[in-house]
Amino acid sequence: MTLINKNIWMAFYLVSILWGLSLSISSYSTYQRVYDEFVTQQISLTNISKNSLNATFDQYEVLLSIVASQVLKNDKMIEEESIISIMQTATNLHSSVRAFGLFNLDGSTRSTYPVNPETDGRPLLTVSESKASFEKTITANKMVIGRTYFSESLNDIIIPFRLAVRDSMGDTKMILSIAVSVDKGFSFFVNNVIESGFNNTYLYREMDRYFQLAPIDRIHDANVYQQKIPKSKVKITIEELSKTVKTPLAELKESEITFTNETFRGSNTYINASVYIKEYSMWLITEIKLTEIMQAFLYKVKLLVLVHLLSIVLIFFLFRNIASSEKKKVKELKFQANHDYLTQLFNRYYFDQYCEKVNSSSPFTLIYLDIDHFNTINDSYGHAVGDQLLKAIALRVKGIAHPQDLVIRSSSDEFILVCFHKTELQTNEFCKQLLASVNTTYLINDAEILLTASIGVSVYPKDSSNPEDIKRNADLAMNSAKTIRNTTAFFNKTLLNDYLYKCSVERELKNAVKHNELYMLYQPQQLSDGTVVGVEALIRWENKTLGFMSPDQFIPIAESIGAMDTVGEFVIEQTLSDMVSLQQRIGTAFSVSINVSVKQFKKPDFYDILMVLVERYQFPTNLLILEITESVLIDDIDAMQRLMVKIKKQGIRISLDDFGTGYSSLSILHNLSIDELKIDKSFVDHVVDDAETRSMISTMISIAQCKKMKTVVEGVETKEALLTLTELGCDIYQGYYFSKPIDKHQLEFFITNPEGHQVVDQES
Predict the structure, then answer these.
(1) At a CB cut-off of 8 Å and minimum separation 6, what does 320 contact?
(2) Residue 761 has pLDDT above 50, yes or no
(3) Sign of the CA dihedral with 299 first, then 304, 309, and 314 last
(4) Is residue 478 part of a domain?
């Protein structure tokens, strides 16, 4: 009842469906009854036709038997005149018998009356229509029915009936044949169909697939009797008949069961009643169009339909009165479905529906407006103030927009405007007004709030003919604007290309490990005299589509799509595997530095995975150094400190990478157990010619020495830089002056051939 109260028309439809179901059941019952009546009547007609045919065939067989017995007396043929006289008498007794013929066994004519209907003087064995049945008659002990054909001498369509004339010993002496007129001998066949109202009846020969009696509508068409029914069609028809009654064909033929089935011919459906006449190997088919049954059914079902329609009309008027009150509720629900409950602006659902209907003949400008750092408002003042602020923003945006423009609240702090008939210059000016309006101070519950916003703009169909692409383009432009804040960015191809490139990198990166596209290089870390004391493991990526990708390009993307776990685990495992085998092979131990990304280091299971891999490859923990950047330390320094303590308890050292370029402070160095400081290449580039840089590096080295940390300098590319850094007291050096990053095989050669190293006293 609750569902019916919410939507009265649902109740009406339910009643209508139930009433219609009742009508359907009654109609189906009526149809089935009418159908069964027609089928029963058709089966009866088919049986009557079968019995009539058998009686007629028996009549002609008796006639042939009588004449045959008189033609042969005491195993001797009677005189020609007597034979003709007998034929004449028999012909006069049966008006349907158009002619008699007595033939020799070679098919030649012995006697005929009144004319020879079957041949133009040729022996019957040479005539295609007669040959098969004539040969069969010679050996048959009963009458044989020949093919139906048109006799030119009689100017009539006839059926030949033949009987062998045998002597007392049973030997065949002659063949007696009569020509029966289809029109006169089988008029009952036509009359039964016409009187019963059926569409058609026909009789065809199983042995050669010729019509014995053609369908009623073509029974007098001589050409029909010259055409075989296609074998494939007969096969399919017989198979379908057998399937319908689920009885083997042999059983159907043996028992001469009359059965029905539906067939399709042209645009009509027919109900067929079929029976096999075993004695003569013929199929008798009676058919009626299904439309005839439908007409009879429709005549009987009219009253049921009329009562149903009247009832539905009465029910409709009853429900319509109730539905008028529902209409208002539906309107309200529709408004709620398409509008934001807080600001009463259109919502994202409405916007998506609108975009599905647009076409290139209706251009528009799509503007995405996002409030900068809106989450801080909710955090600072509470959600109630945030909601009031959103209402105020909505009023301002609505006030700036043209009445024809669509203003949509897309998400918490994002608004969408669909503007029409604006040039780029007008759009730019409009966006400035929007920003100015949004940036004006808000007074909410005595709190003065100042906001800024970022705007992204895309134009349809100029930027794309696909509305979904326009949404994406405006979003890309807005993200570009948010890098600056409080500005407007228009979509351009560069934004799209950058986005698509990033997407392609993401797509390829997901399968990089599986496709063995990632590999490791190792850059030696050396003392000033060239002694190798360690290496830094550096990941590289070579993709068939994208080519070579540096870590700076793909590591941030790996972190953004959650692929850093897989990539980071690959780096650790591959490095440990390479270095264990290398150090065992050359008999030299040296430290290995592995870079760990921010997100990788903060994963709860990072420590467990690290130790599993260390244990798997039996790598000495005192030779393992994890390089982390300063950004690891800014969010939760206490948690990072606890993790670093666990790592150091295993003998693993911690290196602070890119020191001096980020957020490091003396307090961080004081509170955390750092073993090594890596001085960034950006300082090394100017160490020779810039005193201030040298002073900064000297300070860093002093801090490291004070904390008993080693210092590693990256980016050493010249002899002068090496000498300067050595004077400043740096411990370990890394850079192209010594070696670029190399694979494990090159590294083995590098370590085992110290004479090939560059050292201090070499020429740069």
Answers:
(1) none
(2) no
(3) positive
(4) yes
